[in-house]
Automatic annotation (TrEMBL):
InterPro entries: TM41A/B, VTT_dom. The chain crosses the membrane at residues 50-71, 107-132, 138-159, 221-242, 254-275. Pfam families: VTT_dom. It is found in: Membrane. Keywords: Membrane, Transmembrane, Transmembrane helix. Residues 122-241 form the VTT domain. This is VTT domain-containing protein. The lineage of its organism: Eukaryota, Viridiplantae, Streptophyta, Embryophyta, Tracheophyta. It comes from Datura stramonium. The keyword Transmembrane applies. It comes from the Eukaryota. It is a multi-pass membrane protein.
Amino acid sequence: MEGEVGTSSSMAAVADSLKYETQGDGKRGSVVVVVNESKSAKFPLSFWEIGVAGGVVLSYALGLACVYLTMPASDYSFLKLPRNLEDLQILRDHLESYTSDYTVQVLVGYCVVYIFMQTFMIPGTVFMSLLAGSLFGVFRGVALVVFTATAGASSCYFLSKLIGRPLVFSLWPDKLTFFRDQVARRRTRLLNYMLFLRVTPTLPNTFINVASPIVDVPYHTFFFATVIGIIPAAYVTVRAGITLGELQSVGDLYDMHSIATLFLIGLVTVTPTLIGNKN
């Protein structure tokens, strides 16, 4: 009996506190905020969402396994994600002998790895872009990088649309608020604004990929901005990959000629946005 009285008193106290908060703010939403804050301490992804992400990882793993099984019998200990220029040069030296005889397998393997890295925001895609230039030349290399980068960004977009909302709110709350406000203010010229973001380092590309579906950027706008916006940086990086042996660090990618080219292309790309903002 005493336990029931104590429980009733506790429930009444909670009800009184919630009533006080509601009356003080004049809105019922204050109660929801309290509940959401208590949930934010938990892991941001549910079991089902983790299962979806795991299924995507498994799909990419199966694709890589199929490519690996169709390659000739050899020692593939050199196959790993490059983390520096030394790793990249070793990978390039080994893959050059395979590219001419097993072009399809190398292309498919390259695409799967690049898209996987883009989908799950794994650093190191700059080395993959350098590798494309070293193995396939400028024009084919740029086409390959633009295709894989766009496909990876699109994969990240749809995966984030499905399960990414709690993760984005947990990792980048301030950036997400800024991005949402900017998108809302520029709905009439959203493509120009997204092009501006892709060409300039205002926001990281990985964040744009994950946050765009959360702030309701339409996929067709996201797609066209990605395809066009990544061309300048892809050209600079792929062209540098041709002279991979001469690079001492990633910072050597941007010489004066590369910077001038990137600036001119970027200027043409963002001019509509600048004109629209001025008006």
